[in-house]
Amino acid sequence: MTDDISTKIHDFFAQYNVRRYPKGQILLLNGDTPSTIYHLNKGQVKVYDITYRGDEIILNVFKPPAFFPMSLVINHTPNPFIYEAETAIELHEAPAEDVVAFIKANPDVMFDLLSRVYRGVDGLLGRMAQLMSNSARSRLIYELLNESRRFGKAQPDGSHLLEINEKGLAARAGLSRETVSREINKLKSEGLISIETKHIRLTDVTVLQQKLGQDT
């Protein structure tokens, strides 16, 4: 996103009220038909579903400066998932019809939104490929790499810090926490990751990428 587009989006949403919510606040429940669009200024919002066993499966995580749920508003469809603040958040809420009119009147914003949608689709297709063809190890590595790409903090020594725990990884990868713990221990023993207070450190993203799709 260019600075010009970022400023244009920020200025548009700035005319609406700011809302602040704590971690765990539900923004949308499955079955809701949204009438507002959220523009995220601070924090993260997760989109997830609950399996018949009661397990949480995280499908996407929004970070600033995302605005959502555009697909539901454009297509006039009920929401099939749950939107919840994964951290404390700050956002603007704008009427859906105002946001749609704004996007239609600004092709550069529409193109940027489309670009981000396609990047998201590529990520979902990559996850689907792992689910359909690879092992628990590979699925976990994929989620670690995806988390690093989107939220990781690069360190001077070339490693990347991720603010995520085993429970969060399990929900993203569609694996049990026990399976994630077992695979995490294997990756630790290989020197590919280390566990620190509130962080997982990827020691070498390039090497971890090479391990994707390998059972050992």
Summarize the structure.
The protein is built from 8 helices and 12 strands.
What does this structure look like?
- The protein has 216 residues and is of the alpha+beta class.
- It folds into two domains: 3-126, Jelly Rolls (Sandwich), CATH 2.60.120; 135-211, Orthogonal Bundle (Arc Repressor Mutant, subunit A).
- Helix content is 45%, strand content 25%.
- The chain is built from eight helices and twelve strands.
- It has helices at residues 3-13, 70-75, 96-105, 107-133, 136-151, 166-173, 177-189, 205-211, and strands at residues 18-21, 26-28, 36-42, 45-50, 56-62, 67-68, 82-85, 89-95, 153-154, 160-162, 193-196, 199-202.
- The strands form three sheets. The protein has a four-stranded antiparallel β-sheet with strand order 1-8-3-6. Strands 2-7-4-5 form a four-stranded antiparallel β-sheet.
- A hairpin with a 2-residue loop joins strand 11 (193-196) and strand 12.
- The chain is globular, with a radius of gyration of 18 Å.
- The model has no long low-confidence stretch (mean pLDDT 88).
